[in-house]
Amino acid sequence: MKVKFMTGLGTIEFPCGTRHTLPYALNARYSDGAIHGMLLADLMALHPEPIAHQLQLTCEDGETLRLLITHRTTKGATFVAAMV
Asked: According to DSSP H, which parts of 1-84 are helical?
């Protein structure tokens, strides 16, 4: 099974109000509405504290996602999200 990702440049907003523009990749939405994706930047350098709250990602096309980070490294982060 081949997974197709949509990529773009979006703005992430951390709980403290800090915003950063970074690349992302999203898969197609599942039947339950969940969206899985990756942030393609070092979130540990941008925001070193653990992230236990929802973040907001404004995508290149203007859509807004509420997301939860599921895993992060110095190379990027994976997340699960829903459209706002």
From this structure: 43-46
